[in-house]
Amino acid sequence: METLKGAFKSKTVWFGMLVASLSWLQQFVGTLEGLTPEQVSLIGTGIGSIVIWLRLVTNVSLTQKGKE
Q: DSSP code of 35?
């Protein structure tokens, strides 16, 4: 239970939920239709870079965050 509580305090988890939500929403809006493959790859690189940065700034486990 503490891991679940800690997950909601994690920037990485919130970012993952945001990316998943936007990916799901995109199927209805069609926002990527006008983008070139190069632009899509830049978006993917940006998302990957943010995930790596969030992992680097993470210094507490999800279980530990749940106890705070």
A: -
Q: How far apart are CA 27 and CA 12, in angstroms?
A: 23
Number of domains in the chain: 1
Query: Half-sphere exposure (CA, 13 Å, Cβ side) for 17?
Result: 8
pLDDT tens, N- to C-terminus, the chain (68 residues): 677 777 777 888 888 888 888 877 777 776 667 778 788 888 889 998 998 888 888 887 767 777 76
Please enumerate in sequence order all residues whose Cβ is within 8 A of that of 10, keeping only pairs 6 or more positions apart, or say none: 58, 62, 65
Contacts of 40 (CB under 8 A, 6+ apart): 32
Query: Which residue range(s) make up the domain with 53?
Result: 2-67
| pTM attached to this predicted model | 0.64
